[in-house]
Design brief:
CATH architecture of one domain: Orthogonal Bundle
Strand content: 5-15%
Radius of gyration: 30 Å
CATH superfamily of one domain: Clc chloride channel
Low-confidence stretches: 1-40
InterPro entries: CBS_dom, CBS_dom_sf, Cl-channel_core, ClC
GO molecular function: voltage-gated chloride channel activity
Number of helices: 28
Shape: elongated
Helix content: 40-55%
Protein name: CBS domain-containing protein
Distance between the termini: 29 Å
Membrane topology: Multi-pass membrane protein
Largest sheet: 4 strands, mixed
Subcellular location: Membrane
Oligomer: single chain
């Protein structure tokens, strides 16, 4: 029976295995398989990867069968199929838009609740409570907790405000952690690394369940409102995919085809970004660049575009911000031109963004690895509560850390306007250096807070903290540049500015935008989508070129310290079966460099006499690996997947078959060599298995896995099995240089 008992995934870290859906066919299956067992279908198991070739072939066959139907019935089938697809797209877009708006309202109310309440309605946030007032008019309807409780002493006011601020922050974050840990552990973190793996074929349905959707949304609102250094943008992509997954379970065409389901999830992911940033075009480009979902299918891109637009329209219709605009951080257009000398501080910001972005990635990866192998891994709620207390206590002391990150970014992007109130003295010309110090202190504190927070047992995104860090540094550089101009207005470098320093020449608010784009480029390593998201986010269409320059330079600088962005690093730490699209260049190695030799594989050896059902059952029970090569003598017959074999054995046993009945994998034309009573299992062998020689270049093997979505390649010579390479081997090969590869993988 089995040749060697060494598993072909042995010594490869996380056990990422393959499975495939299979439906028994009734040709040449032997006398013991009834119609009941033939209809049985094997579902994909958690942790497996889908067979893209089989799924795509099944979808083509389904469409061919519909087109082959004649008359009104055939026409109606096509119309209903298309209508069902667009109905799911529309419902996905509307649902994502409504969820995003609900989260915005809840986060704003909970966040404002830490500092006060509305006198005429407990459930009004500060903006809603003070709506209708003229600019500069004092809002008496919104009261701090010390005012509401009639505390007159300044010292007692400070203690009360700080105590309520810290207590509610701890309560919100702790509640979020309890919900996640108790009801939906998959709801923690951002979710984008897992979504990328799922879209590439990884099976993780538990990650998209209804409880995950509910807890992710509620926990996200609590976590953001707690004031921790995190955002809701990345987790909204996860929420959108959960909603689309629930819809897909209602419609048969998605429920029975994993490839089609992933195309729907790709469209939902684009809608999630669209709602998170108010950027429908940026959402589509995010799916194209970061999720790598649209490159091979224009229909998927079109559906993602439609879903993003519908989600954005739904968000604007609800108007959670009360601005009647999708633009979250409006940039004033008072200075629509920029000067050549400004390229110097902008390039400096770009270099700094690349350096700090790379530093943030390394710090976050180191913290995640430390957390996994320390006592913190056993006490996640204690970690969340403790770190929230530290964050809230420090944040309350620094005015720019105390407010929500979204409010901070909105004010840093704004230019000084005499008709509007001065945001904590940011426009005071006599306090330039004090503001620069506070902004740099805020940025450094947020780098430390974000590196630790992104990975705790709560929903957390990294987009908004990254934008806030870059905006603080950018605004500080803008204030320094503006201060130099006011001090030396006649200097030659400022010759393109008006000679009167009271006339605006430099816009520190746009420096904040440049800093934010540079920091985003350094952390995520995205390019086009960042530019589009930022100019849709701010409305700064006249400054697209400086944003492009900052993203380009920051990516160049950050790539010098590692090619992978934050999401790719987390995928490598979890060892998800996701292959990056970057080119791989070998150094003269061949496939034998990563191939597992035939002697180390668990094989099913055919000798013409077959094997008993009992032996096959023992093989499946003893080994949890996903596939077994089948050989006849020394000749390779193919490979049988474990799920197929297990389902077949269960079907045989359900028919009260004897465990001593013999089976064969020989084709029907040769199966009579062992007797006509044997059960022929040749139909279980994989129909499409790629076979190569072991001396082919390693670069070719990697390219095949990347571009053909393969799960394994068999290597043979003159028909003899020489070895095998799986997708897991290629993942390890491409992530071997990562300092923390596999640090978070399940052992």
């Amino acid at each position: 029976m089995p040749g060697s008992h060494l598993p072909w995934f042995q010594g490869r870290g996380r056990d990422i295995r393959d499975a495939e859906a299979y439906e028994f066919i009734d040709t040449e299956t032997g006398p013991l398989l009834s119609s009941r067992s033939l209809e049985k279908q094997v579902a994909y198991e958690e942790g497996s990867t889908i067979d893209w070739l089989r799924e795509e072939a099944a979808e083509r066959e389904r469409k061919r069968a519909m087109r082959s139907q004649r008359g009104l019935h055939g026409l109606l089938a096509l119309v209903l199929d298309s209508a069902g697809m667009w109905l799911v797209i529309i419902l996905t877009g509307v649902g994502v838009g409504v969820l995003g708006a609900w989260l915005d309202v809840l986060v704003k109310w909970l966040g404002d609740l830490r500092e006060g309440r509305c006198t005429y309605g407990f459930f009004y946030n500060q903006v809603a409570c003070c709506s209708g007032l003229d600019p500069g008019e004092i809002c008496n309807e919104w009261q701090s907790w010390s005012e509401f409780l009639h505390v007159s002493s300044i010292f007692r006011q400070s203690l009360l405000q700080a105590a309520i601020y810290i207590a509610l922050s701890i309560g919100f974050a702790g509640s979020s952690a309890v919900l996640v840990l108790t009801y939906a552990p998959y709801a923690f973190h951002t979710g984008i690394p897992e979504i990328k793996a799922i879209l590439s074929g990884y099976v993780l349905d538990a990650f998209l369940g209804p409880w995950v959707l509910l807890i992710k949304a509620l926990g996200l609102a609590l976590a953001v409102a707690s004031g921790l250094s995190l955002g809701k943008e990345g987790p909204l992509v996860h929420v959108a995919c959960c909603w689309a997954f629930l819809l897909s379970r209602v419609f048969k065409q998605y429920r029975q085809n994993e490839a089609r389901k992933r195309k729907l999830l790709a469209a939902a992911a684009a809608a999630g970004v669209s709602v998170a940033f108010g950027s429908p075009l940026g959402g589509v480009l995010f799916g194209l660049e970061e999720l790598d979902t649209f490159s091979n299918d224009s229909d998927v891109m079109w559906r993602g575009f439609v879903t993003s637009v519908i989600a954005a329209v739904s968000l604007q219709y609800i108007d959670p911000f009360g601005t009647s605009k999708l633009v979250l951080f409006q940039v004033s257009e008072s200075a629509s031109t920029w000067r050549a000398f400004e390229l110097i501080p902008w390039v400096f910001l770009s270099v700094l963004g690349g350096l700090l972005g790379s530093l943030l990635i390394k710090l976050n990866a180191a913290v995640a690895a430390y957390r996994r192998h320390s006592v913190l891994h056993e006490w996640p709620i204690v970690e969340v509560v403790g770190f929230t207390a530290i964050t809230a206590a420090v944040s309350y002391l620094v005015v720019f850390l105390r407010v929500q990150s979204s409010e901070l970014v909105a004010n840093l992007f704004q230019e000084c306007d005499p008709s509007k109130p001065d945001y904590h003295g940011l426009c005071n010309p006599t306090a330039v250096w004090a503001n620069v110090f506070l902004l740099i202190l805020t940025a450094m504190a947020k780098i430390g807070f974000t590196a630790w927070t992104f990975g705790m047992m709560i929903p957390a995104g990294i987009f908004l903290p990254t934008i806030a860090i870059g905006a603080c540094i950018g605004r500080a550089v803008g204030l320094i540049t503006q201060g130099l101009y006011r001090t030396y207005p006649q200097a030659w470098i400022f010759s393109s500015c008006p000679p009167d320093p009271t006339v605006r020449c430099i816009s520190p608010g746009f420096y904040a935008v440049v800093g934010a784009s540079a920091m985003l480029g350094g952390v995520t390593r995205m390019t086009v989508s960042i530019v589009v998201i930022l100019f849709e986010l701010t409305g700064a269409l006249s400054h697209v070129l400086p944003i492009m320059i900052s993203v380009m330079v920051s990516k160049w600088v950050a790539d010098a310290f590692g090619k992978d962005g934050i999401y790719s690093i987390w995928i490598a730490m979890h060892q998800y079966p996701w292959l990056p699209a970057r080119d791989f260049r070998d150094k003269g190695q061949t496939a034998a460099h990563v191939m597992k030799s035939a002697g180390s594989l668990v094989v099913i050896s055919e000798d013409g006499q077959g094997c008993t059902v009992r032996e096959l059952d023992e093989l499946v029970r003893r080994h949890s690996f996903r596939g077994f090569p089948v050989v006849y003598g020394e000749q390779l017959l193919g490979i049988v997947m474990r799920d197929k074999l297990r389902a077949c054995i269960e079907g045989l046993l359900a028919e009260d078959s004897s465990m001593d009945r013999r089976c064969t994998f020989l084709p029907p034309s040769r199966a009579d060599e062992g007797g006509s009573e044997m059960i022929n299992l040749s139909h279980l062998l994989e129909e499409a298995v790629l076979q190569l020689r072991k001396d082919v270049p390693l670069e070719l093997v990697v390219n095949m896995f990347q571009k053909l979505n393969l799960r394994h390649i068999l290597f043979s010579q003159e028909g003899k099995l020489m070895g095998m390479v799986t997708k897991t081997d290629i993942v390890w090969l491409l992530t071997a240089d990562s300092a923390h590869a596999g640090a978070l993988a399940d052992r």
